[in-house]
Amino acid sequence: xxxxxFGANAVDWEERVDxxxxxxxxxxxxxxxxxxxxLGALLSFDFANIRYMTATHIGTWAMDKLxxxxxxxxxxxxxxxxxxxxxRHHQLYNPWLDHTPxxxxxxxxxxxxxxxxxxxxxxxxxxxxGIAQDVARKVATVLRENGVADEPLGVxxxxxxxxxxxxxxxxxxxxxxxxxxxxxRTKTAGEISLxxxxxxxxxxxxxxxxxxxxxxxxxxxxxxxxxKVLYDLGSEYVEGxxxxxxxRCSPHPHVYSDRLIRPGDPAFFDILHSHxxxxxxxxxxxxxxxxxxxxxxxxxRCREYMDAAIALVKPGATTADIVSLWPRAEEFGFPDxxxxxxxxxxxxxxxxIWEKPIFSRLVSLDHPEPLExxxxxxxxxxxxxxxxxxxxxxxxxxxxxxxxxxxxTKFPAEELLVAGRKYWTARGALDTLRESxxxxxxxxxxxxxxxxxxxxxxxxxxxxxxx
Length: 467
Known about the structure:
The chain is an alpha+beta fold. The protein has two domains: 19-183, Creatine Amidinohydrolase, Chain A, domain 1; 189-453, Creatinase/methionine aminopeptidase superfamily (Creatine Amidinohydrolase), CATH 3.90.230. It contains eleven helices and 18 strands. The chain has helices at residues 19-36, 47-54, 85-93, 131-145, 160-168, 177-183, 189-212, 219-232, 293-312, 319-323, 443-453, and strands at 41-44, 69-73, 79-82, 114-116, 153-155, 173-175, 237-245, 266-275, 278-279, 282-288, 345-348, 355-359, 376-384, 391-400, 405-407, 417-419, 424-425, 428-429. The strands form four sheets. Strands 4-3-2-1-5-6 form a six-stranded mixed sheet, sandwiched between helices. Strands 7, 8, 9, 10 and 16 form a five-stranded mixed sheet that branches. Helix 4 (131-145) crosses helix 5 (160-168). The protein is elongated, with a radius of gyration of 25 Å. Residues 449-467 have low confidence and may be disordered.
């Protein structure tokens, strides 16, 4: 299998991602999952679920505000209420929502699947303004029109006043998030193409970043560079760039800073962005100027865990099979799996970055999930170096195929890359495998450093089943 990577433009001479089919297939999967459930309808406030259901989007500024909402009744059509003029835009430009109209409004205008409505702005509206009650009335009206008002309503995320108002309307609310996530568990061919294209954009960003990295630049400058490359390539949303360098690598803080990168530093990055809604989660580690032996050894260990995991990915394997290869939290310096969560980790990737299935020793050994053809997920490994401050982080996104998997994150990560300019001495090129503590690079010092690299938390011994 070779997943195609298309250009972003529409052309008449090549079949690319069929977006109309993408919309139809997503809604069909959601409907099928709803039919298999005991729910009468689904109510969504989550942007990813609303997009999956209705193929609408109003930008990323509103993703944390819970202001939009949409309903899918069993056997019916989706209805979405959107922010102000966005609803009018959907009526003009989203014909797939222009289904059989409901009853006319008092003004005589017909009701389409896109309507004006707004939730409570996370409580910013005055509680006595009746906004939550208005949301509940709108939803209850659609449920009654479709004959499902007496059946449970599955909700993904919601504000407490809205849930209370729905109860006052006689609507029973239950968890609906699992229905959405089950529908999104495997991806259509169009979704896989878009996920691969999103990764291709990050490939380009890493190439620019590798050429930019050098002593004297700051982590935040790296974030700015990556963001510009992605937006120039047409990214819809740069969700985050995790830029970690030097002694900040261990423990991993999961947030970038204004730290100045120095010679011999490790630096790892996670690039998360959206292409037509489809996300990436894509770590790479570099050494800047040179790499110490401890850092190199940590990278080798990190890579071995990754390769062993990818080798097991195929339909029928389980999340437990994968995580059983990875080290226990105590083996790399943490007291338990909660404290080490997301360092040896895997997660589905789609319209959001953490979807089903989840791979973690915290849950997967006791609650394994089978891998299926069409799943797309990221596997990420971490290993702290024996020097106590360096570390390595690698992440690959894979598509489960009929016989195995295909890796769609293409920027080289088989070996530790050294970024920055090449230095020359009177005797030739400066060795890029060297300690940042200069006195350790003497003949005697190298011997001492080599011995030290074998100790420390988790640095010695075999890597579980990975070595």
